[in-house]
Write a structure and sequence with these properties.
Blueprint: E1 3-7, E2 13-22, H1 27-32, E3 44-55, H2 57-69, E4 76-80, H3 84-92, E5 100-101
Parallel strand pairs: 2-3, 3-4, 4-5
Antiparallel strand pairs: 1-2
Length: 102
């Protein structure tokens, strides 16, 4: 599966791993990883991009929709382990001002 998620034992830390292309084709899988989470639950999310090979503008939109669903400015989302190319896309889109980038 291109998108998988794991939840910590306490249910508060969710890691979403992207494998291969992060584009419109994985929209439903990606949304399913966070859609049932209540923004008031205080969950923190990590988007692990270690195995992502590609990211397009639809993926940027999916990240923005996730952020909005989880409370906007109060959302606790970290994007981690991005390749140089994906990091450049995130920087050009100024995502470092909206997400934690690790």
């Amino acid at each position: 599966m291109p998108v998988t998620s794991t939840v910590s034992a306490n249910g508060k830390d969710i890691t979403i791993k992207i494998t291969g292309r992060f584009d419109f084709a994985v929209q439903n899988e990606f949304r399913d990883c966070y859609h049932g989470i209540d923004p008031d639950d205080g969950a923190s999310f990590t988007i692990d991009m270690n195995k992502a090979s590609y990211m397009d503008s639809s993926a940027l939109g999916m990240l923005l929709m996730m952020r909005e669903h989880l409370g906007g400015n109060s959302a606790n989302i970290t994007i981690s382990n991005s390749s140089a190319d994906i990091s450049n896309i995130l920087t050009v889109a100024n995502f470092q001002s909206l997400f934690k980038i690790a």
